[in-house]
């Protein structure tokens, strides 16, 4: 299963936002993009952002937020174009319904990367059946449960302690070690900083 294995904080600095979900992400204090230094020790100046540049950067940002590579992201775009709602909103809804994202949104993991690991190791059940595919698309009314033994993991325990102090997303319902999809996610349930129209324009070229 393909996934990015390089330095994650480098991606955060490239997009100028904490994509990793870590509260201590270096990008919060180090706003410079990654790369070498220019002549005289000065960092290379960025060129004026073109329309294509904005579209590309937004697409890359969303891919990196959800931990999806290009081939899989293109598949989400193709599926979204078949939906009755706007393509941009449909793309985000499909990404939100990924099993690793749902585990993260339910507060069972600190980051999406952590949630992906939990799913990969077979610690999650969907409607009573073990599912170890992070990209599994969760449907309405389905129930997601953690295996009881994983709760002893210190990172999972910390994540659940923190999530207990914050409300669950409106499209999800959490109770103990289980969560339920009460309705399919809509645009308002995704990050408001995402400009999905740029993504649609990028793939419409």
Please explain how this structure is put together.
By secondary structure, the chain is α+β, with helices and mostly antiparallel strands. The chain folds into two domains: 8-34 and 48-92 and 193-202, Ribosomal protein S4/S9, N-terminal domain (Ribosomal Protein S4 Delta 41, Chain A, domain 1), CATH 1.10.1050; 98-184, RNA-binding S4 domain (Structural Genomics Hypothetical 15.5 Kd Protein In mrcA-pckA Intergenic Region, Chain A, Roll). The protein contains eight helices and five strands. The protein has helices spanning 8-15, 51-66, 70-80, 87-96, 99-105, 112-120, 154-163, 196-202, and strands at 124-126, 129-130, 143-146, 172-175, 178-181. Strands 2-1-3-5-4 form a five-stranded antiparallel β-sheet, with helices on one face. A hairpin with a 2-residue loop joins strand 1 (124-126) and strand 2. Helix 3 (70-80) crosses helix 4. The two termini are 29 Å apart. Residues 37-44 have low confidence and may be disordered.
Features:
Structural Genomics Hypothetical 15.5 Kd Protein In mrcA-pckA Intergenic Region, Chain A, 5-stranded antiparallel β-sheet, single chain, 205 residues, Ribosomal Protein S4 Delta 41, Chain A, domain 1, alpha+beta, 38% helix, globular
